[in-house]
Every structure is written in structure tokens, then in C-alpha cells.
## 1
Amino acid sequence: MRILVNEEPRDIATATLAGLLDELGYGDARVATAVNGAFVPAARRGSLTLDEGARVEILAPMQGG
Amino acid sequence: MLFYGAELSSRLMLGTAQYPSPEILADSVRAAQAGVVTVSLRRESIGSRAGQAFWSLIRDLGVPVLPNTAGCHTVKEAVTTAHMAREVFETDWIKLEVIGESDTLQPDMFALVEAARILSEDGFKVFPYMTEDLVGAERLMRAGCQVLMPWGAPIGSGKGLNNVFGLRALRAHFPDVPLVVDAGIGLPSHAAQAMELGYDAVLINTAVAQAGDPARMAMAFRLAVEAGLIARAADPMEQRDMAVPSTPVLGRAVLA
């Protein structure tokens, strides 16, 4: 299945958002996620299934003003 | 002065962006004795652990964090970013930025009020980055904000307090609301001026991060903020248009 992760096309084997984070090697990294523009809390990542063409955003802590 | 019920250890809020290195950032936060540091959320390349290293550095500094929604241009973007920030940084504080104009990074006050209302209803403690507009300030208060953060000048411009009259009016209209000058401050003297006007805190980033010696500049800002705060409490004299001799006139010799 092909989806977009931070606007980059990516073929993935998993069906869930939690599976995607594992597949990409995020492990226990502190990140926040959104799918198709909507926030997905960490607790819902395991049950959220990704559809073909889903737009996933994975954001990490960063410097800010 | 309490910010959503919290007493800050200092009135200097410091941004964490644009420092030459993580070490210099840490040195600057310590030299500033910052009461709050601002942070954000961004994409990072897969496999990079830069975000995790940054977060670990910030946690070790032990300073309360204020996440921002920098770069958001719509209510939806800002609200979604705020939710993501609340989860990652484990705080319900949010520096709400909704940018309306790209050249000046001027806040979109209409979208700001709407986003502030949605977030306040959802339990966020909103620190709105705003213009010094009095009516906008009133609307933000009604939307649930208990802190206001007017700009001094456009973000990163270093021009200081562009509209002293407007900032003074805001202070006068909202005597009991914590007010923070956010953005545009370039020099410690600008920060001191904001505090002398009765502002409760200032938020600085570029002026420290882009100085030749950021940690030393951070110390200068700490001293300026403290000086301004004490000066305000000491009740400054009124300005006069004409000179008034300070040395007593009485007893002056006649030598002509």
C-alpha cells in the first residue's frame, strides 16, 4: 500500500499507524501523529487503519521561538 | 503575577531556535535564567534523532516549556498543532500563533480569536501571539485567554517597541491581565522599556540566538528585565517638557 509520510511517498506493509511507526523505526521516540490533517493521539495509533493514499504527518520536538 | 496560576521563576521567556549549537542554547538558557522556554514541532528526516536529542536537552534544563504553533496560517492547522504539542510536551500551555501575512508575520486576529476559543474550551491555556489591538484583546479574553502577548515589532526584526502608545493603552485597559511583549525585541534596552511600561514579561529569541555571544547577551537581557521590573515597582517620575534644575537654586552665589 502506498501512502504519504510527511509528504514523501512510501510503500508500507503494515495497516495501522502504530505499525507504520514501528516499520519506520520510531520505536519509543517522542513524536506526535496526524492522519489526513487530523490529530491522532498515541492511544489510538494501534486501532487506526491506514487507507491507500493516506497522508500521515509525524512530528518531533524541535527548536522554536 | 501568575500565568494561568503559575508563578514563573523569572519574567524572561526565551526561544530555543537559531542558536549556533545545542551547547550554546543550553548556556544561554542558564545565563538568561529563563522562566519559560518556547519549543515547537517539526518533521524530522526518518532515522534522525535530532528531535529526541533536543527534547532531552530541554528536559535536562528543567525550565517549563511553552510549545508554539509557529507557521500555522489557519484555525485548523493551529488547533491540530496545539493538540499534537500537548501530547508530545505534556503541557496544556500553548503559544498560539496564527499568521495572517507573510512579510510581517502579523497575526490574523480573526483566526486567532476563533482558535483561542476552540482551544480554551478544550482545556488549553492559551498564550495568544497578537497585535496590540484593544478590541482584539477584549475578544481574546472573552474567548478564554488569561494572558495576552502583543508583538513589539515583526518577529525577528529587532526593531523594539514599534507602538509604545498602543502597548501603554493595552496595559491601562487590562491592568490585571498578565501581558507579555512577544516578538520584535532586539536589545536589552527594548526589554527594559517593556517592563518599565508595566508589562509582566518579555519573550526573546532572535536577539539572543543571533548575537555574536548568545550566552552573554542572554545575561544582558536577564539584567535588563530585572532592572525594568524593579523600575516599574519604584514608580518612575513623570516626563516634563521643560527643564527643572535638580541642584537647589536657593543659596546660589551671585558671581556675575
## 2
Amino acid sequence: MSASQSAVRSRAEAVKVSRTFDWLILFTLFFVVLGGYHIHYMLTGGDWDFWTDWKDRRLWVTVAPIVSITFPAAVQAVLWWRYRLPFGAVVCILGLLLGEWVNRYLNFWGWTYFPVNFCFPSNLMPGAIVLDVVLMLSGSMTVTAVLGGMAWGLLFYPGNWPIMAPLHIPVEYNGMMMTLADLQGYHYVRTGTPEYIRMVEKGTLRTFGKDVAPVSAFFSAFVSILIYFLWHFFGKWFGGTSFTQSS
Amino acid sequence: MAATTESVRADAAEAPLLNKRNMFLGAALYVVFYGWVRWYEGVYGWSAGLDSFAPEFETYWMNFLYIEFVLEVSTAGILWGYIWKSRDRKVMSITPREELRRHMTHWTWLVMYGIAIYYGASYFTEQDGTWHQTIVRDTDFTPSHIIEFYLSYPIYIITGGACFLYAKTRLPTYQQGLHLQYMVAVLGPFMILPNVGLNEWGHTFWFMEELFVAPLHYGFVFFGWAALGVMGVVNTEVIAIAKLLKKDLA
Amino acid sequence: MKLIKDKVTKLSFVALLVTVTAAMFYAPTASAHGEKSQAAFMRMRTIHWFDLNWSKDTVPVNDTMTISGKFHVFAGWPETVDKPEVSFLNIGIPGPVFIRQGSWIGGQLVPRSVTLELGETYEFKVLLKARRPGDWHIHTMMNVQGGGPIIGPGKWVTVTGSMGSFVNPVTTLLGDTIDLETYNLSNTYFWHAFWYALGLAWLGYWARKPIFVPRYLAVDAGKADSLITAGDKKVAMGFAAGTIAIVAFGMSSTNAAYPVTTPLQAGLLRGMKTLEMPARTVNVKVEDATYRVPGRAMQMTLTITNNGDSPVRLGEFNTAGVRFLDPAVHEDETGYPDDLLAEEGLTVSDNSPIAPGTSRTVQVTASDAAWEVYRLADLIYDPDSRFAGLLFFFDEAGNRQMVTVDAPLIPSFI
């Protein structure tokens, strides 16, 4: 066939076709990334994300940002450097939160009847918006890792606190003090999750009193920076277009 | 004869570039089917799925498992066989417009892959977590596993395989060898299925409780990363499509 | 090809139809769950539940019931299960069909994990409030870290009414009474919807213009910088500044609205109060024990020595929740689940009272279909063919003594 032959009949059709591909690609990217990201997140930080009585001020704050900055870093690495599109992190979080919410509502509540106020997901959107904006304004992977990664870790707890604070009101219950979140975990029986499985702050003689959440957030921010670097390069590799040749 | 190749016939008929009807029907097939599956879980999970030693468990769940095994193996065989058997042997000589049309069809397949991956890796995988809060794990084949591992995973594997085969057999872009990231995007999530072996072995011998973040589950995580290979496919596709549209878009 | 396609479609449809039809003719039957999958020797040698009482058979939604009784932590605890140093008194129900309003071991509330001692007996109680209508099998259950769930006997309880009417009022230390079933829900929805909308707005801002092909062509042509305009930068700065401002505002207004909050409460509870059992005056030596596969019966030769001051008779053998009784000595009046109760399952070759200071060697047979139904007979295929259980002796005044047995078991196939 002649190379000069055109695939489209007009410029208008070319524009339309290009736009059609935009939606097809965006849809697929959204859902495939959602699938991979969700399975990654639920199996590395999921329990903290499932239950309010795991959402503590130490381990939840530490783990969730570290394990969740992975896919955003990888997707940014492709969308920004190849297309100058600064929505890699937000598109990941939109996907993850959609997957989580659909599941919490239709399955945790709709199939097994755990109240939604006990099993809603963590909010990761503030960090994602800032991560994307930092990348866009700086155009630098290093600056994004350091500033964006730091913001990712630091914004997590305050971004979730308005949702979690009401559940940390104390109650006196049969002679013991608990938070409402603890009480949810106790009331709504999870046959497969005995209390000892729960990984939450139990205090230590080495703790700086009340500074648990800020210290955890800061540590989380530090590791998020490192993970961002690592996953940026993962992302670059996954975005590769190489072919293997049979020997 | 060139005149008998599929490409020329399709061109002559002047099919639309994107067959929207096929795409929506395909998407509807997944959504309706999984809607039915979720309904089945809702009803028979509770009434027949709590005790794997009960006779009704055999009726409603183990038979479901056997039927889905047979259907999956035959669907994979027929679909993949058909795509391979009807391959275009003159793929390098198709018209640019036909190539564009095939990219559209390829993306229709990839959209299906997106839907299938979503249901498998997100919807049914996290759903498994909540079912294990509800029953005491007394078999490898819990109702949620019968759906998650042995239905939703094979379905995305079949869909992913179909995408890859379609690209390989009908698009000039993929003729030069095997696209590494494409293989990762299809084979990685596929590996989640064999990894079930590790999962069940671990749950049988160590760990009955439901701790999602247990290291036992990291195999799933590792293979889940492979989904990012879709970015390599996107990039390759964009380069190929840009080549086809470049002079008209300028 | 079309023919094959048609056939596949037809076959799939038939298979689907068969499943659906089979589903329609479903009639529920009584069943247990979970415990039968566990190795019998584990169930016999870990936690022994006894004196169990399910306070009701039928409970309306919002009404409560209790399960109470005792459990003995077996001294011959199997090596393969971690010792119950971190254990949680759970309840084996299919999810939150009840809420657990309280659970106590030795009178102490145990919302958290506890340490149990081998060889000790504890009293427990679990208070449940009905939430979801249906017939539910309610098991006692102890989770042991490094071991897993140890499921005790289960009984069917019917919950009536409607889940829509379920309420879970809780009064906080600040004096407010809230309904924990729906508390904080609209706040959660609001914040998540708000942030999701903001994320969508960001994506929408970029997706309103062509996304992939033209941008790739521009980057490829070295014109990447032209893709981000000054306007884009302003919008981006607005998004970032807005995000940070909203987070800061949300944090400070929340702190103002909820000045009193406490961290999650956690930590192992130690020093659980044990139950003082009557002093043991009966000694039992297991001479041998066999399980006769065809007769579904376990036979033991026991030498019983009565060191007490009143004559005793063997009334019950209890293992893995299955109770074998000699009706001449002891009858169950607690409404114990039928499938776990062999009311005439215990036969003793000579069950006349054993006088104080004397010894007697007797043949004891525990037979019932429960050996098979509860898969206890599988003990003979376990990697540690050893059985264990509780023997209950009664004197004439009705006083009871508990003696544990733990010995190898030889199967008999003929």
C-alpha cells in the first residue's frame, strides 16, 4: 500500500479520531491502573483502610502514604514525560477511591452488612492534587519526589482528621474507656479478625507523649520521598515500548 | 489473492472506524454478567455458602465451580483459537485506514480488559476480605474464592490474552517481535492465578485469620504491579496512531 | 465457526439455566460451619467448652441474648498451636448479624486480647444484640494468635423483625447519645464527595482538551513547553493553594468542634480470673483407647481411683464440644444442641458407684454418629493420633468433678 495514503479523510476526522482514542485510552488506563493499584493497596495497607478501629495515629498514618505513593509516582512518570499531562496522581486516586467506595458500599455493607461508617476508605486526594501540581510547576522528578512526596505524607492525617475525629470521642463502656471507633470494632463482629490482629499504637516508653501523629506523618513523608524515586523509575520501565526478538 | 484477505473485504464494506455497538454490547456483557454473579453471591452466599461440608454447598457452590472451569477452558480455547486461526497473514500490507480501524477494535478489546481487570483485581478481590469476616474459613473454595479466583481472574486472563493475540495477529505495530510491556500487562495479572497456590498453602498451614496485609499476600501485590504495563501499551499505541494521523492533525 | 459459536452460546446458556434452576429449588437445611474443617486432635486438645447456655432460641431485632458457660484450657495443648498467650474471646457468627454488646471472662470485660493459662478453667459470657433477621448458627469461639480460631459448639438462633429498625445508641463521655449504626455517616460522605469532586475537576480541566496523540506529537517535536500555558499554571496554583487551605481549615475547625478526642485503645489484658473448680479427688488412668471405625465408637479402658469421701459414677465424656452421657447418671437439661449431644452415648461396663478409697478398671464406650458428622473420627488419619477430653464424675448428692484425659488412640478397622 502506498505510504502516502491517508488513514483519515479530513483534518476534522483526524481530530475526532484522536479524541475518540483519548477516551478509549483514558478509560482503559483508569480501570487497569485502578485494578493493579487497588490490589496493591489493599494487600499492603488494606486493613488500616477497611476499619475505623485500625485508623490510629501511628501505624495507619505511617503505612498508608508510603504504600499509596507508588502507583501515582509510576503513572506520573509516563503521563508527564511523554504527554506533559499533570494528572497521574489524581487519576490513580480517583480510580482507587472509586474501586474502594463501590466495594465498601456494595459488598462490605451490601453483602455482609458492616455499616459504612465503620469501613469507609482513607482520603488520599489532597496529597494527590499537590503531587500533580508540584510536578507540573517544577517539571522536575527530584523536586516532585522531595516536595510532593513530603506533602503526600504530611497531608494524609490532617486530610482525614475531619472524617475520623468524631469517631475518637471517648465512651465509658462497662467500666473501660474506649473510643467510638474501638466500640465499632467490638460491636460489629468480624469473625475473621480477632482483636490481636489489629496493628495500632499501643504506646511505648520511648514515645514523645502526644506527638505520635506528627512524628509518624513526618517519617511517612520521608519514606514516601524515597518510594517516589523508586516508583518513578518503575513507571518509566512500565511505560517502555520495547519488543523482544525471538532468538 | 489480496482481494480475498480480510482487510480488503473490510475496507470495501467501509465499516465504521469504531464499532460502538460492539463496544457497548461487550461492556454490557461484563456488567450484566457480574451483576448476576453478585446477585447469586448475595442469595446463595448466605443460604448455602457458610459451611463447606453441607450438601447445599456442593450443589450451589462446588457445582458453580465445576461449571465455570469447563466454560472458562472452552471459552479460552475457542476465543483464542479463533483469533489465531483467523489471523491476517498479510498484515503488513493493509491500508492505513484499515490499520486505524483495527487500532480502534484493539482498543475495544483493551476497554474490555479494563472492565475485566477492574472486576477481578478490585471488585471481587476486596470483596473477598469482607466475606472472610463473615465466615470461618473452612475450605479453599469459599464462595468468594469461587468467584474471585476461579471466575473473575480467568475472565480477565481470557480477555487480556484476546487483546494481546488481536494485536499480534492483526496490527502491523506488533509484528516486529513480542511487546515486552504488553506481555507484562497480560502475563503479570495472569500470574496472580497460580499465586493462589501460595495463598492457599499459607492459609492452610499458618494462617486462618483474615489479615489482608500479611506478607503471605505479597505475591498478589507483585503481580498486580504488572498492570502498569498497560502504560507501555498506551505509549506504543499512541506512537502508532500518531504516525497514522500526523499529517492530517498538523 | 458460526456453528461452533452458536453451540457454545447454547451450552453456556444451558449451564447458566441449570445453575439458576437449581438455585430456585433450594431448601435450607441445618448445618454448622467452620469447626469441622479443623483437625480433630486440635479440637480435642485446645479449648474445652462446657456448661454452655444460649439464653434464647428466638430474638427480635434490638433484643439481647447471652451465651454463657465455661472453658477449660487444656494442659496437653498441641505443639503445633501457639500457646494461648494472646487470645481473643470471639463469637462465631456470620458477620454482624448480632452486635457484641459485651463479653466477659471471669467477670472482666474483654474487648481486647487476653492471656490464658494452660490447665486452667474460666467462666465466660457474651452478650449479643440482634441486628439482622434470619436463622443464625452461633458458636462460641476463641482465637489464638499463632493458632487460629478454635470454634466451640454452635446452636441455631432465630432473629426476627427488620434490620431497618435496628438502633445502637451509645452515650459518650461528653454526655451525648449517638446511634453508632449511622453516626458520622453524612460527614464521611460529605468529605469524600467533596475531595472526589475536586479530583474530578482537576482531571476534567486537563481532559477538556485533546489528551494523548496531539500532546505526544508536540513533545516529540520538542515543543513540550508550549503544552503548559500560563493560565494552566495559575489554575494549578489555585488547586494546590486551595487544597492546602481546605486541609488546614478542616483540621482546625475539626479540632474546634471536637476538642476532646482520645487515641484508639489497645493492649493485652493479663491476669484473667480463673474459675476455682472443686478439688479433684478422682484419678483416671487411660489403659488403652481404640476407635472402632465400623461402629462409630470410641472405647477406652480406664482405671478409676476414688480418693474422695463419697462414691462417684462416670456421667459424661465431653470432647470437642460433643457430649456423651450415661442417662442413668446424668441428663442434660440445658437444651444443648441435639447434633452435639449423645444422650445415651456413654456406656460403662460397670457404672455402679465407686466407693471412696477404691479403684476399678472399666470399659467405657462413647458412641454416636457425631463422631462422623463432626469429623472427629478423622482423628485416626491425623498426624498426631491422640485424643483428649473431659470426664465428669457425679456423686450421690449431684456434686460434679471434672477430670481431663489425654492419651494415644489406636484405630480398629474391623
